[in-house]
Structures are given as C-alpha cells and as structure tokens.
Amino acid sequence: MLLQRTIPLWIAIAAGFLMLASSFLRPTQGLGEDFANAFSVIAAIAFVLGAGSLLKANLAKVSRRDAGWGFAVVTLAAFLITLTVGLFKVGVHPSPEFPTAPFSGSQQAADTPFGWLYEYVMVPLTSTMFALLAFFVASAAFRAFRAKNAAAVLLLVTAFIMLLGRTFAGVVLTGWLPDWASGLRLENLSVFVMQVFNTAGNRAIIIGIALGVAATSLRILLGVDRSWMGGGGRG
Amino acid sequence: MSGMGGQGAADGPLQRAAAWLVRLERLDRRWVFLTMGLAVLVPILWIGLTGRTFPETPTPAAQAVFDQIERLPEGSRVLFSFDYDPASAGELQPMATSLLRHCAARKLKVVCMALWPLGSNMAERTIAQVIRQDFPDRREGVDFANLGFQAGNEGVMKVTLTDLRKAFPRDARGQSTQDLPILQGVRSVRDFPLLIVVGAGYPGCKEWVQYVVTACGGSLKMVGGCTGVSAPQLYPYFPAQLSGLLGAIKGAAEYESLVNSAMGGETPPKYLEAQRRMAPQLFGHLLMVGLIVLGNLIYAAGRIRRAAA
Q1: Mean pLDDT in chain A?
Q2: Residue A62 pLDDT > 70, yes or no?
Q3: pLDDT at residue B151 above 50?
C-alpha cells in the first residue's frame, strides 16, 4: 500500500506543486527544471517498458496460437531485427573523426542497414497506411454524408466550401465574381469559415478544456483524484 | 430494373430515375476505391509529363509565415522542430523543405530538433535535400545543426525554456552541444527570435504555443505547419500566439510559390512538390463532392420510392 499508493501520491503532489511554483517563484525554478528533466528520463524509460510490453503481449499471442498469431510473429521479427541492427550499429561506417573506431559512426546515416530499414520499410509502410485514408474517407462520404436535417445540410455546405475552396476549383468556379463580391469567392469563403466560425467554436472548446484541466489538476494535486494510479475511483 | 421495384413500365420517369439511383446504393465500395485511385493517379501522371502546376494565391496565414522569415536579419538563429514522421510526410515534407530552403537562402542559422522519434530522420533528410545539396558552403555545427530527438514531449519544451543544452546534451551526430559554435551565446529557446514547428499532431504546434510561446510573453515568434486535420485546432492561435500558419498541402503550396517567386530563376522539381500535389488534391476533392452529391441523390431517391410505395 505504501509503495503502490502513498509514495507515488506524494511524489505527484510534490512534483505538481513544485512545477506550479516554478512558473511564479524564481527560487524554485531550478527544482522545476529538475523535475522536467526527470520527466524526460521517465519518458525514456517508458520506451523500454513499451518494448517489454510489446514483447510480452505478442509472445503470449503466439504461444496461445490466438487468431492472427502470424501477425504477432511478424511484429516480433520486425522489432528484434530493428533493435539488433540499431543497438549494435550493424554495418555502420566509422565516423571520419575516429576512422579506427568501428562503432563511432551514426546508425542514422542513410547508407547503413538501420537507414535502409527506415528508408525502405518504415517510410513506405507508414505512408501507405496514411494514404489509405483517402479511399476510406471517399467511401464513407458516399455512404454516410446525408442531408437528413438542417444541421447536416449546414455541415454539407461547409464541407463543399472547404473541399472546393482549398483547391483550384474554387478559383475556376467563382473567380469571375467582381471585386465588390470577392468575399463570396470560394477560396475567400474557406478562409472565412476557418478564421471566424472555426476559430469561435474551437476557442470555446479550448477554454472549456482548459477549465476542465485546471479542475482535474487541482484534484490530483490535492490528492482528491487518485484514479491516475490505477484501480479507478478515489482509491 | 423492374425487378428492383416490381412496378416496371407503370412507373413515371421520376420513379424510374429513383429506382435506377437506388441500385447504386449497393455499389461495391471497390468501385469507389478505383475511382479515387484514378482521380489521384491521372493528375500525378499528367503533372509528371507536362510539369505544369496551378497558380497559387497566398492566404494571410501563409503570407505571414513568409514575412516572419523575411523580417529576420541575416545570421539570425532559428529553432526548427520536426515533429512528424513518414506517415504525414506526404503533407508536411514539402513545407519543411521550403521552410528550410527559405531560411538557408536568407542566411539564417538553423538549429533543428525533434520531439517525435522519427522527426530526427525527417530533419536529416531535409537537411541533406536542401542544405547539403544546394547550399554546400554552409558548415554543420556553425550554420546549421541537428540536435536530434529527445523523449519527453512537453517536459522537453519546459526545459528548453530554461536551458536548451540540458534538453539536448548531444546533437544527432553524438557531439556535445556545449561545443557547438551555432549555440554560442544561446542559453534557452528565448534566445531565438523565431521558432518554426512542422507538426503532425501530439506533441506539435499546439503544445509549443501553450508551453513555450505563451511563456516567452511575445519575445519569441512562432510559425507553424500542420496537417489538414489539425489546422482547425491551430487557427484560434493565429495571429496572436502563432504568427503564421501553413495548413496542409494547400498552405504548403501557397508558401512554396512565395519562396519560389522570391528566389527567382528556374525552380528545381524538388521545390515544386507541394504545388504538384495540388492537382491530385483537386481531383480527389472533386470526386469527394461528386460522391457526396450522388450519395444524397440516392438517399432522396430512396425516400421518393418509399413515399410512392
């Protein structure tokens, strides 16, 4: 109980109040920096934990022969190959400054196996995943974007303004409008929608979120909300 | 068609049209995928063959990015954060390329960094493409540097506010940042007149505005580039906290055309990437509009048929 709840709670309270104070009181600025650095260290450790978690979950999937366990094998193989190649600097050329030291070069260089993994595996795969969105968004728009009520009609009209106004189609369709009506050109309408309607709506959301974050932070700092420690509720 | 509604020739023209449209409701989605593929592919091929691009008129947000960089005196230091990865490079890489080219042409000293694990690679790739190829007289560590990736998101941002070297003790090449000539006289992010962030999400432009720019109280200007989906969330910060914004490939194309005009001469294809992508975007968007209209016609046809039944 002491290790799992009380100590983490007091670390969070102390770190939270110190970070808060460091923004206002100069003498506490150094301590605030130290906590921010500690956060960076913890974030780096989280990568190791993440790797461990990935190994554990996928190994369990393979050993149980769950549905799609073959994908888990691919994930594990990709993870271990990348880790080995990167960690042991496989095929890395020595740095020009230290030509006799075999591990002095950077594995980030383009002409290393790690660079190839990045250039020829990571880049195409992630780009492909992102590019697939265009196809699914098109299909979803065809099947689901219906003018069923007034709000949906407004949404539809806004979508048309943005879709056409953010391309040369806007210029072709409404470029002929005279200067006194230039505000109605699609490219100008799209800017207007973003800077007026979107900004107004988003600012309201941002202010709401900020108030919510302040309230939640205060609850955590005062130890009222302990759900972040796991187990749910007030702990 | 008569099999669809069972009324055949007895129907009026409206009902017949409605019945025909309703058939499309069961259209295999692979046809939609194929049409989208063609809508993107054909313009890419056309541009590849002709080399022609659409003219761009800069919006105020894109013009502001250009003006902020133009305003800086020669030799000014700029902090450039590459907070994206290859997944969004299609949208963000052209703007990063143009931004770095503009900075290099203006003889600004660019310090690159990344808060995304693959951001450092994106920075390295951009540096190789722009500075090493077209500005070979610029010396690494003196005129430009890549500090690499640092884990910690907002934690790193907070540290850069007080001590940049604490956040990045070594650069991407593994050299100590204490010895980097480009950082001589720099203690924190406050010592840079301009911060450029190209971000795909979290952490990105929004966090830089909230944790760094606001804390600097106006002494640090920031311009940003972002994906289309995150642009609406950043407009509320323009122009007060965010001095300029490039939203998606459209913003990149506008800025790219501004930089190309300012540079003059013949523009190499690598500096036309954003403008070249506007044609596939145009036809993709037109197809989307067409599909939405068609989808709604089918919906209306279904209602007409149900009302008639």
Answers
A1: 88
A2: yes
A3: yes
Question: What is the CATH topology of the domain spanning B60-271?
Answer: Rossmann fold (3.40.50)
Phi, psi of B169 (to 5 degrees): -65, -30
- Residue B202 near residue B153, CB atoms below 8 Å: yes
pLDDT at B205 over 60: yes
Mean pLDDT along residues A70-99: 89
Q: Which chain A residues in 55-94 lie under 8 Å from chain B, judged by CB atoms?
A: none
Task: Tell me which chain B residue has its CA closest to the CA of residue A120.
Answer: B86
Cis status of the peptide bond prior to B55, with omega within 30 of 0: no
Q: Which residue among A146, A167, A199 places its CB closest to the CB of B281?
A: A167
Neighboring chain A residues of B44 at a CB cutoff of 8 Å:
none
Domain ranges (residues) in chain B:
8-51+279-308, 60-271
Q: Quick check: A139 and B29 CB within 8 A?
A: yes
Query: Using CB atoms and an 8 Å cut-off, which of residues 160-189 of chain A contact chain B?
Result: 160, 163-164, 166-169, 171, 187
User: How far apart, in whole angstroms, are the C-alpha atoms of residue A210 and residue A228?
Assistant: 19
Residue range A206-217, pLDDT digits in tens: 999 999 999 999
At residue A59, what is the residue type?
L
Rounded to a whole number of angstroms, the distance from the CA of B73 to the nearest CA of chain A is 30
Please state the pTM of the whole predicted model. 0.86
- Range B220-246 average pLDDT: 93
**Distance between CA atoms of B190 and B193, rounded to whole angstroms?**
7
The confidence score (pLDDT) of residue B3 equals 41
Which residue among A122, A134, A160 places its CB closest to the CB of B40? A134
Q: What is the 3-state secondary structure (H, E, C) of chain B?
A: CHHHHCCHHHCCHHHHHHHHHHHHHHCCHHHHHHHHHHHHHHHHHHHHHHCCCCCCCCCHHHHHHHHHHHHCCCCCEEEEEEECCHHHHHHHHHHHHHHHHHHHHCCCEEEEEECCCCHHHHHHHHHHHHHHHHCCCCCECCCEEEEEECCCCHHHHHHHHHCHHHHCCECCCCCEHHHCHHHCCCCCHHHCCEEEEEECCCCCHHHHHHHHHHHHCCCCEEEEEECCCCHHHHHHHCCCCCCEEEEHHHHHHHHHHHHHHHHCCCCCHHHCHHHHCHHHHHHHHHHHHHHHHHHHHHHHHHHHHHHHC
State the Cα–Cα distance between residues B19 and A135, nearest whole angstrom: 27
Omega prior to B203 cis, within 30 of 0: yes
